[in-house]
Amino acid sequence: MHVVSDSAEKEGDAQGFAELHRAFGQQVHNHFHSTVEASGATFGFGAPRAPGLAPGNVRPEEVDHALRHYLSPQPCFSEALAKIRRDHLVVLSGHEDTGRRAGAFALLRELTGPGIGLRSLSPANSLAGLTAPNALKERQAFVILDYVGETNADPVQSYDIARLAEELRRKDSYLVITATESSLRRLAFDGYCVPWRAPDPKELFRACLDPLQAAELPSALMERVGEQRRPADVVAAATGFCAGGTPTAMKTMSGSDADAVRMWFRKVPLLEDLLPLAALAFLEGIPERSFEEHLATLEGLVRDWELSGESAPGERDAVPVPGTGTTVLPQSRALWRKRATGLVRVDRRPEPGLGADRSERRMVFISPGIRELVIGELHTLYGYELWYPLRRWLHDLAQHPDLAVRTEVARGTALFAGHSLAEVDDLLLQEWADGLTNQRVTAALTLQHMAETDRLAPAALTIALGWASNRGQARAITMAMALSGTLGSVYRLEVLNWLWRLTGRGERMAAAARRSVVLLLQTAEQEPERALFTLRYIRTRMANARAGTWDHRRTTLIAAQVLVAPRLGNQPGTLPGALLRQRRENARQLGKLWAGLLLSRSRRTAFEALCDTLVDVRDEPSVADAVRTLGEAMREEMTPAQWQALSSRLLAVLRHPDLAMPSTRQMAHVLLGTPGV
Questions:
Q1: Contact 557, 514 (CB under 8 A)
Q2: I need a surface site. Which of 462, 496, 498, 573 has the fewest CB within 10 A?
């Protein structure tokens, strides 16, 4: 048996986090190939979320906005209202996109009245945990959206849910849980479940209009409205109708991308056409030469599997030339693109950081939504004969040395999870999470991309947390990787608490957890609230840890890594410098951390980091107020003698030729609150 040394494992972990740093440094991987209407949208970390997805308070105005076009479906709404009034608890179960989230808000609004907010709880909460003292407050409205279920036996769950209902009644509080039927053990929840249905689409459409608009509507329009299954699509069509009448509403419901993908598959494509499209669904946008290499590997795997008796890919295109005894190589690029017309186009661009003269041809889908539609059709129409070799191919790619390849594999796998979560988790992610460094990075990136979708974010969190439950060091470290970035953006407190627990375990896991906390801050440059929240968390942990204890030591280790960290990606400067630029409130939290480190065994590291940060912000007068606040916060934590010693040493060090810039010394005087020279 091959045994990997501790040093090699730690080196692999460091390499994995370095790759995540690079991947997150690119921030956004949206490739737009035509005009995009995205007013009011943001991309990358910190994208707007549906209200209630992230645990925390949901403000009354957010509830109002979610219910602005709400129409309660009957009879399920009345049944759910009766159950929650009786038991103070109800579970809305059913298919996705049936309006369960809005239904939960509407039920709680009915009970609490207008102008009252509610509190969203984590979908990973255990029922037993909610019955603990102080877990639920009195006279509050709670919601758990997209509950992911538990693995306890039915009798245990039945007991826990009965205790929870009793606790809610005792505190005169209410809880609505939304979940798919597959995530529930129905026997345990049966007495509290209400199968949820979407409202009638035609009734919802009319309810979104004023009475004059709804009086006479074209029959063709209403027929198309009646075909819609998602309330959100009906509301979008009604909004379009109000803006531009019937043509705009019909265009909103046209679904041209879905129709194009459906028609392409309806023609029953030949193997040599199907495999490139399947490969592109998991490798969109990589250089064409690399794509062809990986496609050839997939074709070989399918050929070995002898898929459905088809001849080997490309054989039927090799045509003898009369009178020569030779063959003509197929013009495979031209032939396949012709056959994929309407779905695929050729883009040309260089790798990030390279000039236009290094641009390469890359095949991409003509619009962003086609990729997921293709994966959906592949999952719906094809069975083991395609997916067995395709999964083997994905396992190989998950180990590929090229991060760009693995990033696209992760993106495609996340889209696949939207259609078959159990298959992705059981047959791909579990193996990758326990595999080599490259596989673990691929698993972590897959969960990051899953977390970008509201309906998959709870599942991504649950999968990640499951890797820390006595599943071995490798999976626990993969969890730490996965919790940085998007998951940390959505589930802030829960992620920080889990990472904090990991810092108290073995050194390898503790080191990974510390790196993840730093990544959380590095990815929060565009999310001021999350950055401040994370800094406050670390500062509070440091303040509550008694000096000389292990608790205090692990906090100072995290704080030290934060203060010496660079910015994300290839951006110049330090992380503390970026946080000082971001908002002045960060300065007080950073000041408390710096003072704590300067009074600890890490004082040298803290001092060097302080000098580096002053150099980073020296030419930015707009940051002076934040630097002044930073100094004030540090001074509050020190005795006059300690502060004087720091001042003398800092001004002496800044006389060094490498640091002796007037702007640096001036910023140091701002920090110290002394007159500049």
A1: yes
A2: 573
H or E element that contains 184 = none
For helices 624-636 and 640-653, angle between their N-to-C axes, nearest 10 degrees: 140
Instruction: Describe the crossing of helices 271-282 and 288-305 by its angle, rounded to 10 degrees.
Output: 120
Helix (H), strand (E) at residue 40: none
How many C-beta atoms surround the C-beta of residue 46 within 10 A? 17
364 DSSP β-pair partners: 345
Terminal Cα-to-Cα distance of the chain (whole angstroms): 67
Helix, coil or strand: residue 172? coil
Closest by Cα among 105, 166, 165 to 141: 105
**What whole-number distance in Å separates Cα of residue 86 and Cα of residue 80?**
10
Report H helices in 306-402: 332-339, 370-381, 384-397
Query: For residue range 304-353, what is the model confidence (pLDDT) as tens digits?
Result: 876 444 443 433 343 333 344 456 667 777 777 777 888 898 888 777 66
CA distance 194 to 291: 48
Name the one residue in this structure whose structure tokens are 């298919």.
95
User: Hey, how many other C-beta atoms are within 10 angstroms of the C-beta on 301?
Assistant: 18
Which candidate, 536, 556, 555, 644, places its Cα nearest to that of 597?
Answer: 556
Q: How far apart are CA 257 and CA 34, in angstroms?
A: 13
